[in-house]
Write a structure and sequence with these properties.
The chain is built from 3 helices and 9 strands; from the N terminus they run ββββββαβαβαβ. The protein has helices spanning 61-65, 85-88, 97-107; strands spanning 3-6, 9-13, 19-23, 26-34, 37-44, 49-55, 77-78, 92-94, 115-121. The longest helix is centred in the C-terminal third of the chain and has 11 residues, at 97-107.
């Protein structure tokens, strides 16, 4: 399973049906394996004190504003899906932070409904 860090946040790929998340140096969760019930899983995390923020598809606009980059002045949010020269200059096109967060996750080839967002506590 994939994961990536961005601005003090960790994006962790989990199964879409994952529930009962617990962090204790590692991420523990349950996911339905078959008709007989849920199976527990564990995922190693980078060093640090991580706290669960939200599943990506349940993230609020205010939570997204704390994660993604916003341009000063016009209030537009960065489109992380851009590549090449547009990305080099940090082109901002998106009106909502949640759209920017979606572009960030998709740019790492993850599905929105399969991502858990963790915040690194200081």
């Amino acid at each position: 399973m994939k994961q990536f860090e961005h601005n003090g946040f960790l994006f962790v790929e989990v199964p879409e049906d994952a529930t009962n998340f617990v962090i204790d140096d590692e991420l523990y969760y349950q996911a339905k394996f078959n008709d007989y019930g849920a199976v527990s899983h564990m995922k190693k995390l980078p060093p640090g004190n991580w706290q669960i923020l939200s599943k990506a598809n349940e993230c609020s606009e205010d939570q997204a504003k704390g994660i993604v980059e916003q341009q000063r002045g016009n209030g537009l949010f960065k489109n992380y899906s851009l590549e090449g020269s547009l990305a080099q200059y940090g082109t901002y096109f998106l009106n909502r932070a949640i759209e920017s967060l979606t572009s960030l996750i998709l740019s790492h080839e993850l599905k929105l409904e399969n991502v858990l967002i963790l915040k690194k506590e200081k």
